[in-house]
Amino acid sequence: MSEREPIGVIGIGWVGLVTAACFAERGHRVIAMDIDRAKIEGLDGGEVQIYEPKLADLVRGNSERLRFTTAMSDVLAEARLLFCCVDTPPTYSGDADLSQVRAVVAGIGDDGERALVMKSTVPAGTGQAIRRDKPGLAYVSCPEFLREGSAVDDFLGPDRVVIGADPGDEWASAAVAEIYGPLGGELVHTDVASAEMIKLASNAFLATKISFANEIANVCDEVGADVDEVARGMGLDKRIGPSFLKAGIGYGGSCFPKDVSALKMLAGNTGYHFQLLNAVIEVNELQKRRVIAKLNKHLGSLVGKRIALLGLAFKPHTDDMREASSLVLAARLQGEGASVVAYDPVAIGPASSLLPGIEMGASAAETLDGADAAVLVTEWPEFADLDWRAVAERMASPLLVDGRNFLDADALREAGLTYEGIGRPSKSGSPLTGKVAQG
Ligand code: UDX
Question: What is the CATH number of domain 7-190?
Answer without folding.
Answer: 3.40.50.720
